[in-house]
Amino acid sequence: MPGPVISYGTRKALEVQLGEEAARELLSVMQKISDAVSALEKKKVDVTPVAPLGGQDLLSLMNSAFPMSE
Question: Which of 19, 21, 24, 57, CA to CA, is 20 to 30 A from 45?
């Protein structure tokens, strides 16, 4: 698990303002979100189309990407 999501001072301020139990619950949720984002960043891949779009869709895509000047 990576390091803390927020600083010690911020955590203490949350405990004072929200109470220890609520601050702990909020920090737990924040840590889970941080872990999920880290996991998604590790799994991120580029997507390359394997098959052409087909027919008119491919033609219009090509025309918009490479307009022909007259």
Answer: 57
Q: What are phi and psi of 46, to 5 degrees?
A: -80, 145
In terms of C-beta density within 10 A (0-12 exposed, 13-18 middle, 19 or more buried), how is residue 34 classed?
middle
Domain ranges of the chain: 1-43
Residue 14 contacts residue 47 (beta carbons within 8 Å)? no
Q: Which residue, among 35, 25, 42, has the nearest Cα to 4 in the 3D structure? A: 35
Indicate the pTM of the whole model: 0.54
Residue 64 or 4, more confident: 64
